[in-house]
Amino acid sequence: MLRNKTVAVVVPAYNEEKQIKRVIEKMPSFVDRMVVVNDYSTDKTLSVLKTYLQRNNRSKTIKGKSIRIIPTTYNKAEIVLKKIEKEESQRFTPSNIINKNPDKERVIVINHLRNAGVGASIATGYRWCRDHNIDCTAVMAGDAQMDPTELKSICLPVIKEEVDYVKGNRLSHRSALFVVPKIRYFGNSVLSLLTKIASGYWHISDTQSGFTSISLNALNAIRLHKIYKKYGCPNDILVKLNIAFCTIKEVPIKPIYFIGENSKMKINIVIPKIIALLIKSFFGRLYIKYFFRDFHPLFLLYHLSFMIFLFNVPLTFKVIRSFYPDNPLSTQSFIAFVFLSISGFQSLFFAMWMDMMDNERLQK
Length: 364
What we know:
It contains 13 helices and eight strands. The chain has helices at residues 20-25, 45-55, 76-88, 118-131, 151-159, 176-179, 182-199, 216-221, 233-243, 267-293, 297-311, 313-321, 331-359, and strands spanning 7-13, 33-38, 95-97, 107-112, 136-139, 165-169, 212-215, 248-252. The chain has an eight-stranded mixed β-sheet with strand order 3-4-2-1-5-7-6-8, with helices on both faces. Strand 1, helix 1 and strand 2 (33-38) form a beta-alpha-beta unit. The mean pLDDT is 91.
C-alpha cells in the first residue's frame, strides 16, 4: 500500500519469456497486486509465469473495499450501472485466471484464450482492478522497458487524489534525443501532435508511453471493454478520459532501450491504423462532449472550417493548374480561393484555441 491506498500494476505480456520474471521480481514492495495478462503467447511466457506462481508467489492480504448496493428509492442509477457492468463483462477478451487463490496472492496471472493485442490485455487487467476496487492502478509493460524505481512518482499524484490519470513522458528527459531511436522519436512526435488534437489534452507529449497510473474513479468513468485493442490504446484511452472530464498529469521518466526487449510493433502498419483511429476519435469527442453532453461554439467552428475547406477544393485545383501553361486563373476565382482559405483557417484556429481553453482545467 502507498499512503494507506491500494496499488496494483497491470503487466501486459506477449512472448516475454526472457523478461517477464525480471519485471515481477523488480516490482516495489508497496505494490499490493501484480496483474500479469498473458496475451496468448506462443513462447514459454505462460510456463514461466506458472513456475513462478508455484515457487515464489506469496500471500498479501489487502483491505477490501467491497461495496454492496442496497436498493432504495434514490439509487436506481447505481443499480443500472452495476447491471450494465455485468452485461459488458461478456465483451472482454475470453480469459481465465491461473491462480488457485487469486484473492490472496500478490501475483495474479490472467491468460487470454486468444491473442487480442496490448490494449485488450490492459482492459482485462483494468477490469480486474476495478472489480476489486483498487485505488491506484498502474501499467508497466512486460518487456522491462520501464524502471520500477519510477513507479512511485507515477502513482503518487493519483494516490494524493490530485489527478485521475498520470502518464510517463520519455521525450521530456534530457537524454531522449540520444537514447530514443530516431525513427521512433519522429513517429512518436507526429502521433503526439495528432493526439493533442484528437484528445483535447493539448499540453501532453509522448502519447505512446505505456507507463501510466489511473484512479478508481477514472476506471469507473470509461467503458473498459471499448478500449482500442492494439497499439493505439494509449491514444484511445486519452480520448475516453477527456470525454469523461478526467484530469491528467505528465511525469518525466527515463527512456529505456536495448536491454533485451523484442519490439513487436511494425511501424509501417501500426502508424496508419493509429492515425485512422485518431481521426475517428476526434469526431467522436466533438459530438459526444461538445454536442450531446454540453454544447459549445467550437463544435460549430470546427465544422464550419471543414465545410469551407471542402468548398475550396475545386478552387484549389484551379490554382494548382494555373501554374501550367494555357490554364489561366480568373481574378474572381483567385479572390474566392483566398477568401475561403483565410476564412477556413481562421475558423479552424479559433476552434482549436477554444478547445485549448476549455481543456486547460483538465491538465495539471
